Amino acid sequence: MFPASQLEAMLPLADVVVMVAPHTPSTEQLFGQSAFAAMKEGAFFINIGRGASVDEAALLEALVSGKLAGAALDVFAKEPLPVDSPFWDMPQVMVSPHSASTSDKENQRITDLFCDNLRRYLNQEPLRNVLDVERLAARKIHRGIGPC
């Protein structure tokens, strides 16, 4: 693991790069033309983080040029991925429906969390996994969306 400041220095060392970062101001289009240019010739790119962290035009260029051997993409800047997106027809690209985290235990875990939070709510206890609306509002304002 390396800090983001060393990203482009480390990219040439990797055969496979997996993007798992959340969408924040510092990860907005983190993978752009310079990052893809820094990657090893024939490398493979996987994005299971957030679509906004990748400049899709730069990724497309890296794939079409052959710089990258392929990509597995679970998230996109616009979802669902438009039917006219070139990613659908590229044999070296695997598109999945924003479900890379899905597991056979997911529904049970969601149900368990709901039941635990219901019990906590009824007992006037703090809830688990509460959305931080102030942080969300600050993020939306930063992105120019306005208050929620």
Globally, the shape reads elongated
Number of strands: 4
Rg calc? 19 Å
Which consecutive residue ranges, at least 5 long each, have pLDDT under 50? 142-148
CATH topology of the largest domain: Rossmann fold
Task: Give your account of this protein's structure.
The protein has 148 residues and is an alpha/beta fold. The chain has two domains: 1-101, Rossmann fold (3-Layer(aba) Sandwich); 103-148, no CATH class. 31% of the residues lie in helices and 12% in strands. It has helices spanning 7-10, 33-38, 56-64, 106-122, 133-142, and strands at residues 16-19, 43-47, 68-73, 93-95. A four-stranded parallel beta sheet has the order 1-2-3-4. α2 links the parallel β1 and β2 (43-47). The longest helix has 17 residues, at 106-122. The radius of gyration is 19 Å and the shape is elongated. The model is unreliable at 142-148 (pLDDT under 50).
What's the layout of helices and strands?
Elements: H1 7-10, E1 16-19, H2 33-38, E2 43-47, H3 56-64, E3 68-73, E4 93-95, H4 106-122, H5 133-142
Parallel strand pairs: 1-2, 2-3, 3-4
Briefly, what is this?
With 148 residues, the chain is an alpha/beta fold. It has helices at residues 7-10, 33-38, 56-64, 106-122, 133-142, and strands at residues 16-19, 43-47, 68-73, 93-95. Helix content is 31%, strand content 12%.
Descriptive labels:
Rossmann fold; 31% helix; elongated; alpha/beta; 148 residues; 2 domains; disordered C terminus
